[in-house]
Amino acid sequence: MATIAGTLAQPTQSGVWSWITTVDHKRIGVLYGVTGFSFFLWGGVLALLMRTQLAVPNGTVIESDRFSQLFTMHALTMIFLAIMPMGAGFFNYMIPLMIGARDVAFPRLNALSYWTFLGGAMILSLSFLFEAPGGGWFNYAPLSERPYSDGLGIDFYVVGLLTLGLSSLMAALNFAVTIINLRAPGMTMMRMPVFVWMTFVISILLILALPPLTVGLIQLLFDRQFGTHFFIATEGGDPLLWQHIFWIFGHPEVYILILPAMGIVSEVLPTFSRKPLFGYPAIVFSGIAIGVLSWVVWSHHMFTTGMGSVPRAVFAVNTMIIGVPTGIKVFNWLATLYGGSIRFTTAMYFAVAFIATFTIGGISGVMHASPPVDSQHQDTYFVVAHLHYVLFGGAIMGIFSGIYYWFPKMTGRFLGETLGRWHFWLLFIGMQMTFFPMHFLGIAGMPRRIYTYDDGLDWGFWNMFATIGSYVLAVSLLFFIWNFFRSMRREPSAPANPWDAPTLEWGTSSPPPEHDFDAIYTVRSREPLWYDRDHGIAAPVATGEHIHLPPPSYYPILIAIGITLLGVGALSHLAISALGGVIAFYGVWGWALEPTD
Amino acid sequence: MAHAPAVAHGGAHVTSTGTENRKLLMWIFLGSECLFFGSLIATYLVFKHQVIERGIGPFPIDVTIDGKVEHGIFDIPLTSTSTFVLLMSSVTMVLAVYGAHQHRLKMMKLGLLSTMLLGLVFLGFQVYEFRTFGHEGLNLTTNMFGATFFLLTGFHGTHVGVGVLYLGSLLAASFRRNGLGRETGEHVEIAGLYWHFVDIVWIVIFTVLYLIP
Questions:
Q1: Does the residue B8 lie in any domain?
Q2: What ipTM is given for this predicted complex?
Q3: Helices (H), A444-493
Q4: Are B16 and A183 in contact (CB < 8 Å)?
Q5: Does residue B92 sit within a domain?
Q6: Is the Cβ of A211 closer than 8 Å to some Cβ of chain B?
Q7: Is the pLDDT of residue A290 over 70?
Q8: Which of A18, A184, A188, A252 is most exposed, with minimal Cβ within 10 Å?
Q9: Can you tell me the distance from the alpha carbon of B24 to that of A174, in angstroms, rounded to the nearest whole number?
Q10: Inter-chain touch B4–A3, beta carbons under 8 Å
Q11: d(Cα A36, Cα A88) in Å, to the nearest integer?
């Protein structure tokens, strides 16, 4: 009986309502990507403000409290609202295509993740209208406690991150199940593209790392709202407990940010070297090893808290060990390039630059693994240089590589290669100019998070240099935006597989139809399209059987509005929370009773 | 058409592992929950001895301070009883799942109903315990024992409450004209996974908090 509704064909939808109610993984991927990129620009504006203030000694552009809010919000925006959602955008769009499926395992849950993310992002960002959090993204106690932070800022932080965590958890559960369960025939685990593998590792990391953060945030919430003393030493609590809880989440989080880029680069390099990825199993197992080891290194963020020498030694060794699988990956990427018939497209430029800049950041990371060295570097600009080499030179470079690589697949259009080169070179030079001098500043003793510095300290020259670099970076992004709009105005011209790439997402039209594949592929190799090409196997032909697509639903956005109002109520008036609870409850009921086939 | 095999639904019911998507989701979600309760239990253990050293009561167990014995606040026979009730709810849950798989719907409904009732009795015990502790001067702000204890057991109680609502929804849905739909067994089994997990967590909490001195 229930099958009758499913036999009706779905007309292709357009218009705002169709985007609000969409459960199509490709559209949700685009929503994630565009939202993430917008927040990337916003986070960049915050960074430019800080660089402007720091350009000269005794700068007067921004005063001290506002500066604290800027670096806190810059970090939160870039981590939770830019890099993670841009990664999620690629997961959404590409994972079902790459494993030869027609959608994710739970399409409506996917939509709910996005709308909840948007709600959390709004809560966090709109804090600027009231009072933005100013305790750093790590938000150490007791600064985060009353009476030291009495305003709403820290509450925005707590509620915003709880909402975003819920969204990430739902997305991660969805992707873990999708990757385990929806692979095309013949797509064994060891035939999956590396990007899929990395997404799988990230999903597991998120599923396990978010609960400790949730617990820490709830304890902080109780401290601030209900008078407990989890992190207040004078009342019997322990501020170091917050540091442990935060970094048990925080260090896996670092790998959650970088592994998508590693996955993207592992797709781009073989395609443009025209040879299979070198040492596929080594790269996969290195990725898994990084995921496992990321759980036993968190205290290297706390070398200066007086942990005692045994824990310091253990965490130092663990941290050095995690450099090994990372190094294995770097050598495998280089070996993939070696002897390849290389095409230097813009995507390839970004991928190669990723290897170089990420390695620089990785090496300064190994330096921090040594407690005595770290004690010198702690809270200086040297650490700022390190983390930006990994996150900007690593994660962002990888994401741009992915944008240039997959743009034809997602839009049917190519991004301009000439403008792409301008974008790449300005970004690359700007990035080195901005972040490399921070190594010098850090060694010269400039502390992080200071809003200004005195004239006689001799930090002026490199600070001005870095500020100029940050403006070059900003200009490079204008080239990208120009490139984007210029391409989007053109007629679609991309064939199904313009790069002659080996993975399944290139086995359907560009952009893919709503049902992804007319017929499901049977996978015979790690490089299915190359295998089929070389063995003269034609693409599978549609059998004409009805393809069932999940119908659009407005319950995801309704539930997300309910969840967001729950959070807003916690910041303002509990009546709003009650309203949110009612909306969410109604949404869950409607969701459960809504026919999906 | 009504008897068309499930395969016809765009492959929605054919999975690479053979495990149904929602069941796999629940298993992985429970993995996440382990870390959630693990963090709460770890916080409790961090402050366990420090509470006694600071000497601000009430304490969970008997403590001697300056030669004076302060009686512990835990009532182990009472909590053992509520633990037994919760354990029995797992038995009735198993019967509900069995009934659902065997299409013995009356057995399933009875099983769901008794599981819910036993869960509610457990929650009643918890409310009573919280009230008693409150009268004896223990609340969230008294000391770190109060804070960690109420947060941990409170979140466990919330999970039981959510479970009761979850089972209640299934029970309500089973009275609809179409029943629970084609996958009655799967639905109830997945709910069972959640319920047993919440039960197992309580066994850990009961052991760590109440039984280990």
A1: no
A2: 0.93
A3: 460-488
A4: yes
A5: yes
A6: yes
A7: yes
A8: A188
A9: 10
A10: yes
A11: 9
d(CA A194, CA A579) in angstroms, rounded, equals 44
Contact status of A9 with chain B (Cβ, < 8 Å)? no
Give per-residue burial for A404-419: e unless 16+ CB within 10 Å, then b: bbbbbbbbbbbbbeeb
Q: Which of B7, B17, B25, B138 to mutate to test the interface with A (most CBs of A within 10 A)?
A: B25
Number of folded domains that form chain B:
1
List of chain A residues whose C-beta atoms are within 8 Å of the C-beta of residue B151: 218-219, 222, 228
CA distance A303 to A374: 7
Would you mind telling me the total number of residues written for chain A in this entry? 597
Q: Are A205 and A255 in contact (CB under 8 A)?
A: yes
Task: Spell out the domain ranges in chain A.
Answer: 3-553
**Catalytic annotation on A499?**
no
The count of C-alpha atoms lying within 13 angstroms of the C-alpha of A534, restricted to the half-sphere facing its C-beta, is 9
Task: Please state whether the peptide bond connecting residue A495 to the residue before it is cis, i.e. omega within 30 degrees of 0.
Answer: no
Hey, is the C-beta of A592 within 8 angstroms of any chain B C-beta? yes
Which residues on B lie below 8 Å from A218 (Cβ)?
A: 151
User: A302: closest CA among A239, A359, A253?
Assistant: A239
Q: What Rg do the C-alpha atoms of chain B give, in angstroms?
A: 21
Q: Pull the structure tokens for residue A243.
A: 């540091």
Pairs of CB atoms within 8 A across A/B: 115
Q: Model confidence over A246-262: pLDDT tens digits?
A: 999 999 999 999 999 99
A441 vs chain B: nearest CA distance in angstroms?
Answer: 38
- What Cα–Cα distance (Å) separates residue A394 from each residue in A79, A391, A558, B150? 13, 5, 36, 43
B32/A210 CB distance under 8 A: yes
Contacts with A276 (C-beta within 8 Å, 6 or more apart), sequence order: A270, A336, A502, A526, A527, A530
Query: Which among A182, A212, A597 is the nearest to B9, CB-wise?
Result: A597
pLDDT reported for residue A597 = 63
Domain holding B88: CATH number? 1.20.120.80
Active site residue A448: yes
SS3 for B103? coil
Is the per-residue pLDDT at A367 higher than 90?
Answer: yes
- Give CA–CA dist A363/A327, Å, rounded: 10
What is the Cβ-side half-sphere exposure of residue A166, based on CA atoms within 13 angstroms?
Answer: 22
> Lowest mean pLDDT: which of A189-203, A411-425, A583-597?
A583-597
The percent of residues above 90 in pLDDT, for chain B, comes to 66
A300 flagged as catalytic:
yes
The question of whether A168 is a catalytic residue gets the answer yes
Amino acid of residue A413:
R
CATH of domain A3-553: 1.20.210.10
Residue B117 lies in a domain: yes
Model confidence at B53: pLDDT above 90: no
Q: Rounded to an integer, what distance in angstroms lies between the CA atom of residue A570 and that of residue A580?
A: 11
Closest CB to A207: pick one of B32, B43, B182. Answer: B32
Tell me if residue A432 falls in helix, strand or coil. Answer: helix
Is B15 within a domain? no
Mean pLDDT for the stretch of residues B127-136? 95
- pLDDT band at B183; cut points 50, 70, 90: low
Q: Is the pLDDT of residue B10 over 60?
A: no
Nearest to A257 by CA among A300, A198, A217, A302: A198
Residue A420 contacts B, CB cutoff 8 Å: no
Count helices and strands in chain B by DSSP H and E runs: 5, 2
Q: Looking at residues A463-485, what average pLDDT do you find?
A: 97
The token pair that represents B64 in the structure block? 């001697």
Amino acid letter, B48: K
CB A275 within 8 A of CB A284: no
Select which of A113, A127, A144, A167 is catalytic.
A167
pLDDT > 90? residue B64: no
The catalytic residue among A25, A102, A191, A329 is A329
**Catalytic, out of A155, A223, A253, A516:** A253
**pLDDT at res. B12:** 45
